[in-house]
């Protein structure tokens, strides 16, 4: 089972890299309304995904693995065509490296990095979580989390997010289902060629920075088929449907 899961995740990571193996570079301007819609979807795409139950790792605990996120986008929208041309993908696929470390008092800290080969798309972020209830054989775990992400390498767009959410989970043998909800703050600023083309399109009026909060809802399942190894699948709704899969070593 472990080999099958690793092969499937490797295929997803390769597919994700191939789907976005091009620069995110705008060839035409867009209006303010389109830029706002783009910012909503792009913010949802780069925001820090949960992909973990609420139980803390503990002082000696580590969780290190790979993850891929697939975001269902409106590929026919003018703003995605402006970004990717006429062959905009149906899904934005982002391969990532993830790491979490347990600390004192039910606190975990984590970091994430994503780089799509042969493109200018990079992404990094970090998270801090706190277990309000650590959970037991009879009771669920409850945790709260804060996170931050930033898009890097793209000259036409400055995009960053900050998130807060809560997660409830309960382990059942090798299965740990969880649910959660929260909100993501998105700050999106047009720069470079996007701003120049859009300013010309709007008769000299530049695109304004978009700032807003948007809700998120997610549910997932962690499967631990072998000691020190786990796979987590998660589905989230945040402006659009988002799917994530993570394979990690836990120790």
Can you put this structure into words, describing what you see?
- The protein has 251 residues and is an alpha+beta fold.
- It has helices at residues 2-19, 32-46, 78-84, 192-201; strands at residues 62-72, 91-102, 107-115, 122-133, 141-152, 157-169, 175-190, 210-226, 229-238, 240-250.
- It contains 4 helices and 10 strands; from the N terminus they run ααβαββββββαβββ.
- It has a 10-stranded antiparallel β-barrel.
- A hairpin with a 5-residue loop joins β6 and β7 (175-190).
- The protein starts with a helix and ends with a strand.
- 41% of the residues are buried.
Largest sheet: 10 strands, antiparallel, barrel
Low-confidence stretches: 1-21
Task: Report the portion of residues in β strands.
Answer: over 45%
Mean pLDDT: 89
Helix count equals 4
Total number of strands: 10
Helical fraction equals: 10-25%
Helices and strands in order:
Layout (H helix, E strand, L loop, with lengths): L1 H18 L12 H15 L15 E11 L5 H7 L6 E12 L4 E9 L6 E12 L7 E12 L4 E13 L5 E16 L1 H10 L8 E17 L2 E10 L1 E11 L1
Antiparallel strand pairs: 1-2, 1-10, 2-3, 3-4, 4-5, 5-6, 6-7, 7-8, 8-9, 9-10
What key attributes describe this structure?
elongated; 4 helices; 251 residues; single chain; ten-stranded antiparallel β-barrel; 20% helix; alpha+beta
């Amino acid at each position: 089972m472990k080999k099958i899961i690793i092969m499937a995740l490797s295929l997803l990571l390769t597919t994700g890299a191939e789907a976005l193996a091009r620069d995110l570079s705008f060839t035409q301007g867009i209006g303010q309304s389109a830029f706002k819609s783009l910012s909503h979807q792009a913010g949802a795409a780069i925001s820090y995904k949960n992909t973990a139950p609420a139980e803390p790792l503990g002082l000696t605990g580590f969780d290190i693995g790979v993850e891929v996120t697939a975001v269902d986008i409106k590929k026919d929208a003018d703003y995605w065509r402006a970004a990717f041309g006429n062959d905009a993908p149906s899904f934005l696929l982002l391969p990532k490296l993830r790491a979490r470390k347990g600390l004192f008092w039910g606190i975990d800290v984590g970091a994430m990095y994503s780089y799509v080969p042969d493109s200018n798309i990079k992404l990094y972020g970090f998270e801090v979580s706190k277990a309000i209830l650590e959970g037991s054989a009879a009771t669920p775990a409850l945790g709260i989390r804060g996170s931050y992400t930033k898009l890097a390498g793209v000259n036409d767009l400055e995009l960053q997010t900050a998130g807060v959410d809560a997660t409830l989970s309960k382990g059942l043998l090798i299965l740990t289902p969880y649910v959660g909800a929260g909100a993501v703050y998105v700050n999106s600023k047009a720069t470079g060629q996007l701003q120049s083309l859009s300013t010309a399109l709007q008769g000299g009026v530049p695109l304004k920075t978009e700032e807003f909060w948007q809700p998120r809802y997610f549910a997932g399942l962690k499967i631990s088929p072998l000691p020190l190894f786990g796979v987590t699948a998660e589905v989230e709704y945040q402006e659009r449907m988002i799917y994530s899969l993570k394979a990690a070593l836990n120790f």
